[in-house]
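Possible regression after last week's pipeline update?

I re-ran a chain I had predicted before the update to compare outputs. Posting the input and the new output here so someone can diff against the archived version. Not blocking, just want to make sure nothing changed silently.
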Amino acid sequence: MAKQSITLQQKIERTASRLAALKAQAQAREAREKARGQKIERKQRTRGLLLLGVVLERELRGSGEAPDIVRELIEKHLTRPTEREAALRFLSNLTGAANESAEVRE
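New output (post-update):
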């Protein structure tokens, strides 16, 4: 009877070990799937931001009031001086180029 209990105990230990290995595999798979999902979300967000920037740039080139509104938004939302300065410089270059092209057409 002692021999049979050792065999059962060994089977229980092997099964527990296998269960632990399967749980580890499942966790690794879930982590990979989560990372893949996050990567897709980042790509979609980046693409959306890029397209929003394209729309905003086109609107700024053709509008007289838009640069003032965008300037206010930049000053409101960008708190780091270097970021604010870069955005305002870009806005100035963008609207300056639009003003120059409007002057050339006249």
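Follow-up from reviewer: compared with the archived run. The helical segments are 2-62, 66-77, 81-105. Marking as no regression found.
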